[in-house]
Design goal:
The strands form 3 sheets. Strands 5-9-8-7-6 form a 5-stranded antiparallel β-sheet. Strands 3-1-2-4 form a 4-stranded mixed β-sheet. It is α+β, with helices and mostly antiparallel strands and 494 residues long. It starts with 8 loop residues before the first helix and ends in a 12-residue tail after the last helix. 49% of the residues are buried. Helix 15 (320-329) packs antiparallel against helix 18. The longest helix has 19 residues, at 133-151. 46% of the residues lie in helices and 10% in strands.
């Protein structure tokens, strides 16, 4: 699949007629006769091809005057894999819009983060997605509003402002325009058994994904490397604290056959769309596993690993700066030692949180808090202490910025210039924090051992040459190679 799939009319028609869920989020079908837009897998009888037209985003459908289908709920489909696969301006802008930057800082704030003019950004988004940043953010607000209407008992006025609307009137008009129902009618349509319940701030959601999804290495990695006080595995769910724009939150994520069960407790409901976006990104839920696995299967030595457990995702992070700090703490030490180092920092410098279920005590410290600590208090070799203090100082003063909008090549170069940062550290940050799907770790001991066992070249140069055929999905090949080991990161906790 490639950029602009909505322009391949024949392929889109075939996907709609076969109700192929793999294409949900890649494009949207608008029906000219009903003025409704759907996801490709909509269970309704497919319209005649002559009545179909295709758009690259829900926002573009809404801009063209189409309403969301009430059966397939296209606004709840997984996001396009394009925005996590690419590093160009449009992809970086989409990641920032999902992170709520337009709602908080407007289009000028988006432009400032990206280093382009507002006109350039609007022109490129319109050209590729058929909608500008304001329309894309509006579509996201509508989706958040629907989520709050259907999962909470909050008054509509509170939902309006929590979803990011500037007024109740705008909220009412947008919901009615997008869903062809008023907010009250949306809530009234819920079956009684699905009626919202619970206390304000506590939400239970379903996070969709494209199948297949193998949860073993995904949740195994997060649980095995969990920092006490910040993360834990409890009752079949990975739980962790979140630092969000308006406050702190706690999330519990549990794998189910067709979705990820998500339970969020937020200090401020305005953080809901950002929290969802970061959890989806951490679990790599917008990936296209069929395309990834098909590419990796072209290598006959990788194919058996893929066939045995398809759908592996790359475990990522909800906080890029936090992960970079933890990567340094984990240099040349065991997983257990890295967790111990991090836990000490959390206890001494993290912000305390109130966990109703107990177990979680802090949000991971900010770079500013870590930059202010006494380096002599760090129980690590002097050279690694220098690496740590240089990193947190540059993160704190803005010299180095890690975020969803990061330019991958430029950020790699900045990281490599730091003392104590070699290719392994840079690539693990690129893979798990920046989200580069092609990051590769040819010097990693586990990768080299797996390569040797499989009959792949085991020297870094030769393995890199062989891995050229796996591009642009080498980060996923890393997951399959790591999975040959008996390390706890490869197994779903019990």
């Amino acid at each position: 699949m490639q950029n602009g799939m909505h322009t391949d009319r024949e392929r889109c028609v075939r996907a709609v007629q076969s109700k192929d869920a793999r294409f949900d989020g890649w494009f949207f079908t608008a029906v000219l006769t009903t003025r409704i837009y759907c996801r490709p897998s909509c269970p309704a009888v497919p319209p005649k091809p002559g009545n179909m037209t295709f758009y690259p985003s829900a926002a573009a459908c809404q801009q063209a005057g189409f309403r969301a289908c009430k059966r397939c709920r296209p606004d709840t489909s997984p996001g396009s894999p394009e925005w996590n696969r690419r590093a160009d301006l449009v992809a970086r802008a989409m990641r920032l819009i999902a992170d709520g930057v337009v709602d908080r800082d407007g289009v000028p704030g988006l432009a400032a983060r990206l280093g382009y003019s507002t006109r350039q950004i609007e022109r490129q988004l319109l050209a590729e997605l058929g909608a500008g940043p304001l329309a894309l953010a509006r579509a996201q607000r509508a989706q958040t509003a629907r989520l709050l209407i259907e999962t909470t008992t909050l008054p509509m006025a509170e939902i309006a402002f929590a979803a990011g609307f500037s007024s109740i009137r705008t909220f009412n008009d947008t919901v009615r325009e997008v869903f062809a129902l008023s907010p009250s009618e949306l809530r009234a349509r819920l079956p009684r058994k699905n009626a919202p319940s619970g206390t304000p701030g506590a939400l239970t959601l379903r996070l969709p994904f494209r199948t297949p999804l193998n949860p073993d290495n995904l949740f195994g990695h997060l649980a095995a490397t969990a920092v006490p006080g910040v993360e834990e595995w409890r009752d079949g769910a990975y739980r962790r604290t979140l630092r969000l724009p308006y406050g702190h939150g706690i999330v519990a994520l549990a794998p189910e056959p067709d979705h990820i069960a998500c339970r969020l407790t937020l200090g401020d409901l305005r953080d809901l769309p950002v929290a969802i976006s970061r959890c989806r990104r951490m679990l790599d839920l917008d990936a296209d596993p069929v395309a990834i696995d098909d590419q990796l299967r072209t290598d006959p030595l990788l194919a058996p690993l893929v066939d045995k457990a398809p759908g592996r995702r790359v475990p990522r992070t909800v906080d890029e700066a936090e992960f970079a700090v933890r990567a340094v703490l984990g240099q040349q030490v065991s997983t257990a030692a890295a967790r111990t180092h991090a836990a000490r920092l959390v206890t001494a410098h993290g912000d305390p949180v109130d966990d109703p279920e107990g177990g979680l005590t802090h949000v991971f410290p900010t770079p500013g808090a870590l930059a202010a600590l006494d380096p002599e208090s760090l129980a690590m070799p002097r050279t690694r202490r220098t690496t740590f203090t240089t990193l947190v100082r540059q993160l704190a003063d803005g010299t180095l910025h890690l975020g969803p909008e990061s330019d991958w090549p430029e950020t790699r170069a900045r990281l490599l210039a730091l003392p104590g940062f070699g290719p392994w550290t840079v690539d693990v940050i690129a893979m798990r924090a920046l989200g580069d799907p092609d990051a590769f770790l040819p010097t990693d001991l586990g990768i080299r051992r797996a390569a040797q066992e499989l009959g792949l070249p085991s020297t870094p140069a030769a393995l890199t040459a062989r891995a050229a055929a796996w591009r642009p999905w080498r980060a996923y090949a890393v997951q399959y190679l790591w999975a040959t080991d008996s390390h706890p990161i490869n197994f779903l906790p019990v």
